[in-house]
Amino acid sequence: MKTGDAQAPIGVFDSGVGGLTVLREIQRQLPNESVLYFGDTARLPYGTRLEEELLQFVREILTWMTQQRVKMVVVACNTSSAKALDVVRAEFPMPILGVILPGARAAVQRGRRIGVIATPFTAASDAYRQAIHEIDEAIAVWQVGCPEFVPLIEQNRVHDPYTRQVAQRYLEPLIQAQIDTLVFGCTHYPHLKPVLRSLLPPTVQFVDPAVHVVRAAARELDLLGLRNLYANRTARFCVSGCPESFAQLSQQWLGYLPITERVDLTAVTPAISTVRAISEGIASRIAPLETSE
């Protein structure tokens, strides 16, 4: 990309409001950057989706973001990062960052007994354990799938007594394992931080991968000469579901009521068969390079 693209927005997407934790970190760490945020609220939660279905969703979103001329995409969804990231990086022209590897690196720097709370899909993928053990095989890792967390957050039930009961049930095996570090293996989960903090020993440290993926994004922007040096920050919010519901739910974390647009991905993206054909063509061209290394 040319340095003239530096004022283009950074794309951020998630199944719902979880990725707002990444957006807030971009605004804190990269105050000049504009953000295009997409929440796939019509199809959440992602954590119980089939892998092929999930990959189709990610392809559709990235195709749309390419049309919006973003300069980089942060996949603010652990589930998508776990299963789709390596595939779509070979199919799309812009840098695409996921949250798992930055989160794993940060966790290794914090503790030796690491717990990961995640969607069932991310937990079953074993992505965090693999990423942590690539850095240090001696670290103990426990992963717990938490299917009820995302729906409860999206229903604005963070402070509901039932949510506390659910959290206590999910955390029990991690408390028994005497973890010293807890990784938020879903970008929704930092919204539950007060609840989780009240249930865990005070010595347990939290790792929010959103903080660390934005640091990685900053380094990538500098490397590519794409960091925006001019104060021109904007945020555009788009969803596949109800804009009003997303805006109302987001207000408590953004501090303002965001103007939110509805986007019909089926109207702006090519058929998935076409996308697959393109990706297969790209894969066939890069395969010799991969096998020769």
Helices and strands in order:
Layout: E1 10-14, H1 20-29, E2 35-39, H2 51-67, E3 72-75, H3 78-83, H4 85-89, E4 96-98, H5 100-110, E5 113-118, H6 120-125, H7 127-135, E6 140-145, H8 149-154, H9 161-176, E7 181-185, H10 193-199, E8 205-207, H11 209-224, E9 235-239, H12 243-254, E10 260-262, H13 265-268, H14 272-292
Parallel strand pairs: 1-2, 1-3, 2-9, 3-4, 5-6, 5-7, 7-8, 9-10
Helix pairs in contact: 1-11, 5-7, 5-11
Family: Belongs to the aspartate/glutamate racemases family.
Pathway: Cell wall biogenesis; peptidoglycan biosynthesis
Binding site for substrate: 14-15, 46-47, 78-79, 187-188
How would you characterize this protein structure?
The active site is at residues 77, 186. It catalyses: L-glutamate = D-glutamate. The chain is of the alpha/beta class and 293 residues long. The protein folds into two domains: 3-99 and 211-292, Rossmann fold, CATH 3.40.50.1860; 101-208, Rossmann fold. Helices cover 50% and strands 15% of the residues. The protein has 14 helices and ten strands. The protein has helices at residues 20-29, 51-67, 78-83, 85-89, 100-110, 120-125, 127-135, 149-154, 161-176, 193-199, 209-224, 243-254, 265-268, 272-292, and strands at residues 10-14, 35-39, 72-75, 96-98, 113-118, 140-145, 181-185, 205-207, 235-239, 260-262. A six-stranded parallel sheet has the order 4-3-1-2-9-10, sandwiched between helices. A four-stranded parallel sheet has the order 6-5-7-8, sandwiched between helices. Helix 12 links the parallel strand 9 and strand 10. Helix 1 (20-29) crosses helix 11 (209-224). The radius of gyration is 19 Å and the shape is globular.
